[in-house]
From TrEMBL:
Residue ranges crossing the lipid bilayer per the database entry: 28-49, 61-82, 113-132, 144-163, 169-195, 207-228, 240-263, 270-287
Tree of life domain: Bacteria
Protein family: Belongs to the EamA transporter family.
Source species: Streptomyces pulveraceus
Keyword Transmembrane set for record: yes
Keywords per UniProt: Membrane, Transmembrane, Transmembrane helix
Residues covered by the EamA domain: 3-130, 143-286
Cited SUPFAM superfamilies: Multidrug resistance efflux transporter EmrE
Protein name as annotated: DMT family transporter
Lineage: Bacteria, Bacillati, Actinomycetota, Actinomycetes, Kitasatosporales
Length: 288
């Protein structure tokens, strides 16, 4: 069961990342985040009411609120990075967020093994190589790498926080609802501030009609992201967390394959090698 749910997590996260990056090339990243999270919050609200999840409310939900504050920042950075591309490089670097839960474990008294030390070194090399020659004289690519690393730290923080927000299935629904509702509030506030500064919230081509036309895709992105959080929690609760983390961290492979199949992306050899090393480092960090 652990392997099945963890692999489902990889599939869902990978497709959500691909869809989010694709839509961000046509409309502002904030719009993608806010609309997709609004749909997810609405659906989760209905699920909480249907399952009686409100009975699980308690102080632990502050972890979900914290995750909801960090999440939009991470998603905004990540979607912007995916829009800059190439997705086959950005997505594997985003999976380095698993280093955050590992660091939390260290603070709680755990001691890293040799695989984790090796994972740190390999991951750093992967980050450098993934930028490839484009890091020199190409600010856009350097910005994509930096945005991805910020997003990775945010994603790892969300994983650590949301794992503390619930211990039961109905509690998980409530925690995810609180997280997504906070995502929407924080993202909406950021969008309001952005519009006040003169930055348009709607696509230049099509405006509100374009957003409405993309609503099914935006809904799928938000729901896939929520479902991935849920399947990962189930996987971690029914088996070794290290196994769940390793299998769930393979989602960049899904994104890279989707980008290659749909967008016909071709990576330079050094970039492909860097992306591969980043994935190896991620696996070592999770299994050490």
């Amino acid at each position: 069961m652990t392997a099945l749910f963890a692999l489902a997590t990889s599939l869902l996260w990978g497709l959500a990342d691909f869809g989010g990056g694709l839509l961000t090339r046509r409309m502002p990243a904030l719009t993608v985040v806010v609309v997709s999270q609004a749909v997810a919050a609405a659906v989760l609200g209905a699920v909480v009411i249907a399952t009686g999840g409100w009975s699980e409310a308690g102080p632990q939900l502050w972890f979900a609120v914290a995750a909801g504050v960090v999440g939009p920042v991470a998603m905004l950075c990540f979607y912007n990075a995916l829009a800059l591309g190439p997705m086959g490089v950005v997505s594997p670097l985003g999976s380095l967020g698993v280093a955050v839960p590992v660091s939390v474990g260290l603070l709680l008294g755990e001691r890293p093994g040799l695989p984790q030390f090796a994972g740190v070194g390999i991951a750093v090399v992967g980050v450098v190589l993934a930028g490839g020659p484009q890091l020199r004289g190409a600010p856009v690519q350097r910005r994509a790498v930096l945005l991805t690393l910020v997003a990775a730290f945010g994603f790892g923080s969300v994983m650590s926080l949301i794992s503390e927000a619930s211990t039961t299935v109905t509690g998980l629904f409530l925690a995810l609802f609180v997280q997504r509702l906070t995502n929407f509030v924080v993202g909406g506030a950021a969008m309001y501030a952005s519009v006040r500064r003169g930055v348009p919230a709607l696509p230049e081509e099509g405006g509100a009609a374009a957003v409405l036309a993309a609503l099914p895709a935006l809904a799928l992105i938000g729901l896939a992201d929520v479902a991935a959080n849920g399947t990962y929690s189930v996987a971690a609760q029914h088996g070794p967390v290290t196994v769940a983390a390793v299998l769930a961290s393979l989602y960049p492979v899904v994104t890279a394959l989707a980008a290659r199949g749909v967008l016909k992306e071709r990576l330079r050899g050094v970039q492909a090698a860097g992306a591969g090393l980043a994935l190896v480092g991620t696996v070592l960090l999770a299994t050490g």
